[in-house]
Amino acid sequence: MSDDQGGSAKAWAVGRFDLVRSLGDVVTPGTALRWALFNRPTPVRFRNGFVLEGPAVTRRLATELALLGASGARFAAPGRGKPSDWIVDLPGGALTTPSGLRFALDSVQSVIFSETFLYDIHFEAFDLTGRTVVDAGANVGDTALYFASLGATVEAYEPDPATYALMLRNLALNPEVAARVHPHQEAVGEDGEITFRAGLRGGSGMYADGGQPVRVRSVSIATLLREVGQPRVFLLKCDCKGCEFQIAQQPAISAFDRVQVEYHTGLGVGSSVAALTQGLRAAGFDRMRVYKHNYGPYALDRHGVVHAARGPEPVEVPPPAGAPRLSADTGAWFTHGSSASN
């Protein structure tokens, strides 16, 4: 065996070991072993008794749900779950979160779904009624539906054609909430037309490697605000894989009361955390925190989120009636306005 072959075999073995280790607390030992040794995940038997099997279960779906489970999600079939479970409807092709939002199974991405619905990294207030959110890099609509479910009106921008189509499908699965979401198949950054590397799911972007180059319309913050008719906006959530550094230098960003910016240094010109925070401070944001938003093995000087605010803090109100919450006293899930129960 050559050194290259030995290195490849070692890398394969390490990758398989890491997979078993990461899923060991989620799936049964037999599933983990079969997956690691033979790369055959199905049927996936979860430790809580849920079994994922059938012709609709692709390797990608099995992997995404198992990794989402490793982040803390627990799954159940329709009609069999607890309020804290995620409901997997294979015949209907949908995954329902504990809060009641539905997503097409082929749109599930374990990292972003865990960020949005398990780690709750985008939380701003229990009630966003009457407030507007601009979602730049809306992906499959997870964050747009999250904000809209709390009452916000959301302007959702996603330039990748395939990802945008998935977002429209997810909006259609949530018609009542989606009535507050206005989708735009455009990029946010500079005015004009840009070349965008598409087809990479959550990794698509101007600076991405691989993918399919497509030409898409791009709008600056000033143009965006003018076109949606909103001179003042509560929140900008930005995840655009490099354009965030350009956006932070635009004077019009001062029209937002708060911003959540996921950054990737090394992408674009002037791409450093210091440049990002300095631009926001120059725009009047006087309160800021930088934090790590998922379990990935990266340092904050490379990847993270800047959350910045200006002006008065919003008035907090109790969550809407019917919203599932976790009791701080009992640890049990309950519906707001009712007694705690399992």
Features of this protein?
alpha/beta, 10 helices, disordered C terminus, four-stranded mixed beta sheet, Rossmann fold, globular, 2 domains, 342 residues, seven-stranded mixed beta sheet, disordered N terminus
> What is the percentage of strand-forming residues?
15-25%
Q: Strand sequence of the main sheet, in spatial order?
A: 9-8-7-13-14-16-15
The tally of helices reads 10
Stated plainly, the CATH topology of the largest domain is called: Rossmann fold
Structural class by secondary-structure content: alpha/beta
Describe the 3D structure:
The chain has two domains: 3-115, no CATH class; 128-309, Rossmann fold (3-Layer(aba) Sandwich). It has a seven-stranded mixed beta sheet, with helices on both faces. A four-stranded mixed beta sheet has the order 3-4-5-6. Strands 10-12-11 form a three-stranded mixed beta sheet. Mean pLDDT is 82; it is low at 1-6 and 326-342. The longest helix has 21 residues, at 3-23. Helices cover 29% and strands 23% of the residues. It is globular, with a radius of gyration of 21 Å. By secondary structure, the chain is α/β, with parallel strands linked by helices.
